[in-house]
Design a protein that fits this description.
There is one protein chain. With 562 residues, this protein is α/β, with parallel strands linked by helices. Helices cover 23% and strands 21% of the residues. The chain contains 13 helices and 25 strands. Strands 1, 2, 11, 12, 13, 14 and 25 form a seven-stranded mixed β-sheet that branches. Strand 13 and strand 14 form a beta hairpin. The longest helix has 18 residues. The protein is globular, with a radius of gyration of 23 Å.
């Protein structure tokens, strides 16, 4: 069955797709179609919209695509579970709602690669600002936006455990900072969150729902794109399938824009004939463009929970108990307030674990309860406790995302190669020792009932690495599998985000990052989408803003505007 022709067809109604749909359809002359394989984010779905319910969608077939890695050779053959949002808004509808841009030096690193000059911090900053309304920012703050769709509320980070945490980091020799998304990322502070008026503010709610009334914008959910159609080397449309319906629907497009994320976008490229020619032929896929970098360069953040029991009743544990959940839920339903109205990731920070790194390589999230992301409690836990999430932020481990079947419903093979490099292993040992320095500081003495995880028996470097291999989880930041660049392994053009070697096809999501940023990736994805919108529309890019930012090492001022 054939469908009408659209100027732009966006594959994926996730974070980037929602932002692009808003910006591209602002011109009534552009016909825009968004295809999302998941379902809609219904207004009544408390597991999406209640911030404290963030653990419930993880692992559920109704909310989560439930990916997992191939056996990881340096983690005892474990398959690492990877949750990805299976609903409109993508992972922004199921994530932890932490808003972090990364360090300005991340973008200086991007721009140091050939052809990437327009992705330095000065060029990215105006797009970070365009997306947000930061309620906590000063009116004259040159780093923060005050009129964008994403309304950011800073965590209150109040109470005895948060007070102890901030005191402990100072006692351990680390600084506080005003704003990890501002002049100085290094240090500890209250975090910005995608929470507004007690509700999760996903990309779908911030960008897409407010403009769905536009007559030139159409959304179709439960639409799994199976391949991009080409006429020679030009993308001319695509095909998608819907559950329970035979055959596929063909859509004609002036341009196809892939926004499926770092797992789905490279898979769809490969199934459409764009990838390493030898791998495509082995799958039985006709080669459209031989791009060996598709599915390569996979990067992610691994994290662990360092958990302590608490000797005083000062944590969030009572609200987590089953008997308390109806009361928490009712207060949220009636007033959008109380323990249900926060993601509880209200504070954390960024530090350098050694003197060799130029900017922070460890990220911390502090939580006033001892519980895993999926809601499970530590051995010996269940009462009052607290924890930090910690992990290296720019590991040099690299993996792959490869299609293993021509059936798009068959998940690709994900190999992350966690803990495979000397740098990675060194930084993990440093991370645990630095964390113990913080949680063992005098400020926590009135509250600490001892370390629950990993436990005092884990002490030597070898024991720490063995525990990390057994216990670590992904921080859910897969990226870099269709990276920007101009070399032989680059997949998209940095100046247009067009896929090399073909026409009419772009990629706009975390897969185009050359390196994973230092922090959660939602904000960098949205910045990329905002910047991409101008590139797609041919708009004059926003003027670069070469403001000075904190550098640990003396260096030249920020990159000059080209």
């Amino acid at each position: 069955m054939a469908s009408a022709r659209y100027d732009y067809v966006i594959v994926g109604g996730g974070s980037a797709g929602c932002a692009l749909a808003n910006r591209l359809s602002a011109d009534p002359a552009n016909r825009v179609l968004v295809l999302e394989a998941g379902r809609r984010d219904a207004w009544w779905d408390v597991f999406i919209h209640m911030p404290a319910a963030l653990a419930f969608p993880i692992g559920s077939r109704f909310y989560d695509w439930r990916y997992e890695s191939e056996p990881e050779p340096h983690m005892g053959g474990r398959r690492i579970y990877h949750a990805r949002g299976k609903v409109l808004g993508g992972s922004s509808s199921v994530n932890g709602m932490i808003f972090q841009r990364g360090n300005p030096m991340d973008y200086e690193r991007w721009a140091a690669d050939p052809g990437m000059e327009s992705w330095d911090h000065a060029h990215c900053l105006p797009y970070f600002k365009r997306m947000e309304t930061c309620l906590a920012a000063r009116g004259d703050d040159p780093f923060r936006g005050r009129a964008g769709p994403l309304v950011l509320e800073r965590g209150p980070a109040r109470g005895p455990l948060f007070d102890a945490f901030f005191a402990a980091v100072l006692q351990a020799g680390h600084p506080l900072t005003e704003d990890v998304n501002g002049y100085r990322q290094e240090g500890f502070a209250a975090f910005d969150r995608n929470v507004h008026r007690g509700r999760r503010l996903s990309a779908a709610r911030a960008y897409l729902h407010p403009v769905l009334h536009r007559p030139n914008l159409e959304l179709r959910t439960r639409a799994l794109v199976t391949r991009v159609d080409f006429d020679g080397a030009r993308a001319v449309g695509l095909r998608y399938a819907r559950p329970g319906r035979p055959g596929s629907v063909r859509v004609r497009a002036g341009e196809v824009i892939l926004c499926g994320g770092a797992i789905n976008s490279p898979q769809l490229l490969q199934l459409s004939g764009v990838g390493a020619a030898s791998e495509l032929r082995a799958l039985g896929v006709d080669v459209v463009a031989d791009l060996p970098g598709v599915g390569e360069n996979l990067q992610d953040h691994l994290e662990v929970y360092v958990q302590h029991a608490a000797t005083q009743p000062v944590s969030m544990a009572p609200y987590f108990a089953l008997r308390a959940r109806p009361r928490v839920g009712l207060e949220w339903l009636l007033r959008k307030s109380g323990p249900g109205a926060t993601n509880h990731f209200e504070a954390g920070g960024f530090v350098r674990s050694n003197h060799d790194v130029a900017y922070p390589n460890l990220m911390y999230h502090f939580l006033p309860i001892a519980v895993r992301y999926d809601g499970t409690l530590p051995e010996g836990g269940g009462g009052h406790g607290y924890q930090v999430h910690v992990g290296p932020m720019y590991s040099d481990a690299r993996g792959t995302c490869k299609a293993i079947s021509t059936d798009p419903r068959v998940k690709p093979a994900l190999r992350f190669n966690y803990l495979s490099t000397e740098q990675d292993r060194r930084e993990w040992v440093e991370a645990i020792r630095m964390t113990r320095g913080i949680l063992g500081a005098p400020a926590f003495a009135p509250f600490s009932g001892g370390e629950l995880s990993p436990g005092p028996q884990v002490e030597s470097d070898a024991q720490i690495l063995d525990w990390v291999a057994r216990d670590a989880e992904t921080a859910l930041h897969p990226s870099c599998t269709a990276r920007m660049g101009t070399d032989a392994l680059a997949v998209v053009d940095p100046l247009s985000l067009r896929v090399h070697g073909v026409e009419g096809l772009r990629v706009v999501d975390a897969s185009v990052f050359p390196y994973v940023p230092n922090g959660n990736i939602y904000a960098p994805v949205m910045m990329t989408a905002e910047k991409a919108a101008d590139l797609v529309l041919g708009n004059t890019p926003l003027e670069p803003e070469p403001v000075a930012f904190h550098r640990h090492r003396a260096a030249a001022t920020t990159r000059a505007t080209p």
